[in-house]
Amino acid sequence: MVAGVYLCCDTATLVETVALVRVGGDTGAGPQVLAERQALRPRGHGSTVLETIAEVLAEAGLKPAELDAFVVGLGPGSFTGLRISLATLKGLALATGRPLHGVMSLEAFRAAHPGSPVLYLADARRGEVFAHGYGVDEPVSVTPERLAGLLLEAGAGDALLLGPGAELYAERLRAALPGATLPDDPEAHRLRASRLVGGLATATRGDFAALEPCYVRPSDAEINYPDGFPDATVAPKQKAPTKRPREA
């Protein structure tokens, strides 16, 4: 892990989380949180992410050019939320010439519970959850009951279930997975950007222009418009008005 100050951001869930973290490198010192913000954004993150980034930079007394790298959560989670945080940090990385690391959002929960069988669950809508972690190596989108079946088949019924999806479907998950652990504390299910640095060892890095979030399934737009969204800017051709005969 390269020493430096990292700006971390995740908007995979309804919680917008941004943090500045100093990483000590090979000195043995753990990550130091310089500034952090968390806010519930049920109406979306679009108009607030840059403001939140500006707030944490001001609190730490830093400018974007003084950062060493950026870290963004790749989900799975909200389609729009993922695009917003990724596009924002791509722009900052391009402007400053600093590297951008893409980290699966699961890693923030693993960092909070080292050594535990963590399974991250996000709300996938349609009565499903996005699941990734213990017992589910590749992210999936399934109902809570189907997830329980997958975990039991994999011998992972003792998973530690964390994330907004776990909180949302707690009753159904507890019924289907009596051997799992599902905390009652709402804070246990909040994703914190400062913990994303725990996943830097497995981060995606390189051509940040090609970095993509984790989309487990097609978006509603892709499903509803498989041939592309109709171009509403092109006005339909209007028929020429019918000429009325001149009266005698």
Find the CATH topology of the largest domain: Nucleotidyltransferase, domain 5
- C-alpha-based Rg, rounded: 22 Å
The helix-and-strand class reads alpha/beta
Give a count of the beta strands, DSSP E runs of length 2 or more.
Answer: 9
The largest β sheet comes out as: 5 strands, mixed
What's the level 1 CATH class of the largest domain? Answer: Alpha Beta
Structure characteristics:
248 residues; alpha/beta; 22% strand; single chain; Nucleotidyltransferase, domain 5; 4-stranded mixed beta sheet; 9 strands
Could you describe the 3D structure shown?
The chain is of the alpha/beta class. It has two domains: 4-107 and 191-203, Nucleotidyltransferase, domain 5, CATH 3.30.420; 116-189, 2-Layer Sandwich (Nucleotidyltransferase, domain 5), CATH 3.30.420.40. It is 26% helix and 22% strand. The protein has seven helices and nine strands; from the N terminus they run E-E-E-H-E-H-E-H-E-E-E-H-E-H-H-H. It has helices at 49-60, 79-96, 106-112, 144-153, 164-168, 170-176, 220-224; strands spanning 4-10, 15-23, 32-40, 69-73, 100-103, 118-123, 129-133, 136-142, 160-162. The strands form two sheets. It has a five-stranded mixed β-sheet, with helices on one face. Strands 8-7-6-9 form a four-stranded mixed β-sheet, sandwiched between helices. A hairpin with a 4-residue loop joins strand 1 and strand 2. The longest helix is centred in the middle third of the chain and has 18 residues, at 79-96. It is globular and about 50 Å long. The protein starts with a strand and ends in a 24-residue tail after the last helix.
